[in-house]
Amino acid sequence: MSNTVHHSVVDRENDYIHAGYGLKSWLLTVDHKRIAILYLISITIFFFVGGFFAFLLRLELMTPAGDIVSAETYNKLFTMHGVVMIFFFLIPSIPAVLGNFLVPLMIGAKDLAFPKLNLMSWYVYNIGGIFALYALVNGGVDTGWTFYTPYSSTYSLSNVVPVVIGAFILGFSSILTALNFIVTIHKMRAPGLTWFKLPLFIWASYATSIITVLATPVIAITLCLLLFERLMGVGIFDPALGGDPILFQHLFWFYSHPAVYIMIIPSMGVISEVVTCFARKRIFGYKFMAYAIMAIAIFGFLVWGHHMFISGQSVYAGFVFSALSFMVAIPSAIKVFNWTATLYKGHIEFRTPILYAFGFIGLFTIGGLTGLFLASLATDVHLTDTYFVVAHFHYIMVGGAVMGYLGGIHFWWPKMTGRMYNEAWAKFSALILFVGFNLTFFPQFVLGYLGMPRRYYIYPDEFQVLNVLSTAGATILGLGYIIPMVYLLWSLRKEKNVGTNPWGATGLEWTTQSPPITHNFEKTPVVTGEPYVYQEEEKVVE
Amino acid sequence: MSNNSDSAVGHAHHFTDMDQQREASTLGMWTFLVTEIMFFGGLFVAYALYRSMYPEAFAEASLRLNLLLGAINTGVLICSSLTMVLAVRDAQSGKVKGLVRYLIATIVLGSAFLVIKAFEYSHKIHEHLIPGSSFQFAGPFGQQAEMFFSLYFMMTGLHAIHMIIGIGVLSVLLYQAKRGRFTAEYYSPIDVAGLYWHFVDVVWIYLFPLLYLVSRH
Amino acid sequence: MSQHVIPQKVYYLVFVTLILLTLVTVDVAFYNFGFLNIYIAMGIATVKATIVALYFMHLRYNPRLTWLFAGAGILWLFIMFVLTIADYITR
Q: B180: distance to nearest CA of chain C, Å?
């Protein structure tokens, strides 16, 4: 890594956006805020690529017959939709964009601990992305995003190798970001900012980073073994050579179940910030919220076997994994109750971010409760590999994680850009998203319960009405994603700056100018008070 | 990983002082080592599983490894860990000459390890013990022995890649040390590289008995 | 942090112990203790690894936080082992 840290004197008139001009000043930046913007661009591109696949999938499923794509193409579409959305959008979304931008600001630091590693992680992300896009252009991959062996290692004729290499490389990008967050949160907090004064978004970022660091290497080695198996005929997972394909599933889900929490916990952090700000109340049960986040992160490692109930795993292991899975419901419920309690008797201001927060709380609750159906061995046998599962995880991933991400973008957009978007449009699109989302995925619960299996491009006639509803919902949902793109970009045209703290929020990030200067704070802040001091006197920050 | 290489004189701009910077580097490396534990961990799980499934085959296949070379390599690695820690010690006390000397010794020992390893690998190629279509293993456990050798090559290969990376990092540090980049105040790259080097040694400490000593009795 | 310099003697002592333990582990491998073989081999390896971590990696002189991190890595490896192997032994 070249020596690019600029010890430039901060121009008081300027902010990080105007700290340098030209492409090079962005591509070689080590400023965490600029890297966040770079990530925002990359991630948005991948989101729309993944969304395009979803659109084609729903289009195909409008009729019972296979009239738009072939079975093979359909397999590739849902695989690429999953791979792109999970690895290239959901996992990096909040940590890499909002986390990168906010972690140093929220703890009163000048930057992350290792700025060059941070930039490197963005490049690594894009290199991984290039591999995935190459596979896509070259004909796609059809294994499902789970890459189950022995299909992926022996039988599939599609581009397994480049996609797996892409996912492998991407893992390093997440690890670098997580490592940076962990060290930064441990070592670079402002004077006086003890652990229990940290904003919950920081707790969430910390928990997420811990999961990333502990789980991601396992998927890396698993994909590595898969590559060797496919390329060199080594038989670690190949039953024909004495290997066990279920071992692949164990190792895969050891990462991929915690990865669900990598996707949802940051959203929980965002929602905590938003709810307390617009309810104008302290968060209810702050310490419980922090403990609950850590508990989810830790329990998340003990439940992976619930993805394998019908895989041939031992029934006794199934019992244990099922029981442990129910445990995750406890801290999750604590969080939902505490958000609700925070809203109770609050002076709620119906601004855009809290509409997303409402959406999140409702949809996450539905997603979480339907998860309990799937954690029970008996009902899971009926529901496995049906649309019930699809609906369940989309309620968590889209209704939860994406709502949280968009809520966060809307909340901190004025801080990131210094501009306010058109709130009428923003509220309208939040509503559209909520309606479109439910219309898309609620019918899928019913479809799954009635027995429609996932990953088929044709289906019996009696399922058509619900499928048409779902496709109609997806169209509305798609619109709900495009509208924010327009008004957010449009807001950049405005001249007017929103000022330091447009929402009247607490937190160190709201004490510095919008957009912040390159080194974030004119003077290192000193924290003396509790977090979320709404209603009472303003938090004392010097 | 030279995270803060822009701070030969003072600490990097975003840290408050040298202590904070040093603590951050050390904690960063330990965090990285945790990821390494889990990275190798996946392989160790696979090894444990297949060894318990095919104990006889593993015992027989293990006898085909060269115990003498494996033991010598263990010694070589332990020596290299010693020279590495002495390099860190000289860096701490600002003795640049000693630092350079010990870094060279560590690089030489690390390379010796790789040479011996390459020697072993080439023997295995001659004996048709590379997993794949050309694999040959007489006796009733042919296929299961192939599993042993798959794991053997994955584990030692991954370890060797880590050694190569380590030697690369140390070479860069050696170059910088010669140019007087490190002082008693600023030596965390050496310290952090040392942590990595010892970790790779620890991995070998487990690999050696697991692969070479399955059943020598 | 490894701020204070540790006497060279300690490092040499650790080195000698490690070499001796390597010889021991090779030697005991030639005796058959039945199912204990693997536990003995892993036990000796763990002693060696612990010594390396404590002295060469200065864990002994590090703050508790570093212990916590190292411990977390080992604990999570243990979780992965136990829950995976538990499936296989109860089939």
A: 20
